[in-house]
Amino acid sequence: MHKEIIVNSTPYEVRVAILEDKELVEHLIERAENKRMVGDIYKGVVTAVLPGIQAAFVDIGTEKAAFLHVSDLLEVRDDVEEEPGERRRSPRVNGGRSLRPLPPIQDILQKGQELVVQVTKEPIATKGPRITTQISLPGRFAVIMPNVDHVGVSRKIEDRAERARLKELVVELKPTDCALIVRTVGEGTDRKALETDVQHLVAMWRQIQEKSGTAPAPSLIHQDVGLVIGLVRDLFNEDVAQLVIDDRTAHDELMEYLRNLAPELRDHVKLYTEPMPVFDKYGVENELDKTLDRKVWLKKGGYILIEQTEALVAIDVNTGRFTGKKNQEETILKTNILACKEIARQLRLRDIGGIIVIDFIDMESETNKKKVLQELRIWLKRDRAKTKAFQVSDLGIIEMSRQRVRPSLYHFMSDKCAYCEATGHVLSLDSVANRIERMVRRVSHYTRFREVRLQANPQLAVFLREERRDRLEGLMKLTGVRLDIVDDPRLHREDFRLISVQTGEDLMRRVSTPAMDGGAGRGEEVEVRRRIPRSTGRPAAGRPVREGRDWREGREGREVREPREDRDNREVREPREDRENRDGREARGTPESRAGRVGGDGREGREWRDSREGRGGREGREPRSPRERGGRPERAAPQRRPEPRPPEPALESPVQTGEPEAPREDAPVLHGTFAPPRQRRRRGSRGRGRRGGGRPVLEENPQLSPGVAPPPREPVAAPEPQRAGPELAPLDGEAAER
Hints:
Number of helices: 19
Strand content: 15-25%
Number of strands: 30
Distance between the termini: 110 Å
């Protein structure tokens, strides 16, 4: 395998590309304002101890407090590896829980306690960095772990004889109170090189101890080497054909580092001085442009789709344009085999970690399923991060995990889309237009404004004018609201504004509720206005008085608000049959007509009738008696009286004296009849008895001339109050008030 490392260094950014057989497999970036934190050692202060999750938060001076789990406080020696950050994890199953019982964290840590910790995982998304108290210092060939008594050899060194030789060396070279582990690059190294590396690491730990004793908390005690030096320390060996770097200053620093650490590797380092960018020279830039694409094409026409989410990463394999030659099973197998290599490469290139679910094309043969799993594991062995792949499920899915110590390349190089809020979708224009129509109906129902300006995104405004023109015209006729569509490039495609032309008020705020499109629910406060008549001082019953086109509200200054449920209990207009009888009466509201409907005691012969609360039309009236349902008696049309003379002393009515009343000479001849009282309900008076007794109702007799006395008649006895007499037409509003 031909391996190359290409470094593009600038004062603001360092990019490293690792090529295997001329193919890009890894891409690392470090920026001046966003340095790598993994491996840095801090002195921190415990800010919170949470027994419920067996963890604590430690202030190390970063923007977010660091997370410390109880398992990272204890000595762990079962899963030691050569790479920094790998050996700090105790063996875990079932979501990362430790197999061995752990003591309660509240018995180990207290709030305000100072600790020396090391970062094992950088901040990702909304989470702060993860830390551990198990310090490790990596060198060229070995790793030391202070305060731990252990020796070991990297598991990636598979030769048993070499493992036995290295273990004998580390037992002899092991420092006091420190664990010593040989790294993978230490395979084949001699005693002198290993001893020099161990001595350098022990001296570094002594300096850290001295600084931690005097440094305040929180503060940075030790910073790990930069990206280039760290990469050379971890990867640069005889297997690397060349390391190309395009910055002279960085080249000189690297050569100085290798002079003391590995002089034999200096010949592999080359300074790039050509005018063409170094990444263009080696074909790296074109590959980097594809690292953020969802779709990755395979060689024979198939492709894979990569979807990164907060919980996991989903990878889907498809045959695409590849149709094969012989049979379907062979075509599927070839596509899955090609996908294994590309998936392993994309995981390294994009630095994807966490839980990964791979949906391979379904295979019928169990042998083919095992071939695919074995092929995937072979390519994953080249990955520096720890990986684990599980068996193929019945659905053709392979679940795997990959160590994650920093944000993926996708999250590092991109921000969430402010337009779609990282969903990748926006509402369709049809959906937004329907929402506008619903909001216009709400405005027409809950407000008095009829001149409205609609501010919308230009794309939405064009759709409304061209595609929804007819529907909007019909809506304006139905609601009485005139819309003036105005383009506003500042608005999102899903946003719009309804502004009153008269006042400039944002009507969206007035009519919006938590359930905007569904209307107001029961009990919700909705802004509703009704007119208060001047004559009564209370909300008018029935339909509000019209004022031009706006009949839902009254004049300004005479409006009240009421909850939605109160609108169901308002009084309703008078029954329709009463309005029809009243409309046929002539000279309504004049003194002459009122005089013809007034009895001897000066009381009105008919009261204005109110319906019960919460009902409308006929439902608001009291039940009629059987006599009333049988029909109304016909009565003579009233005659116009001459101008009345000055009032004379009131005479006793026929009801009071039991005698017929003598007519005046200049008055029309009237016959006295008696009508039972009308029932009337007041607000909150349901179930009360009727009030008052019978009242005389006088009618004109058109057959007798003035001055002629009618024949004597016996007075009619008043019926019981429970029975209702024939219904008479109600008086008009002015007469009712008098």
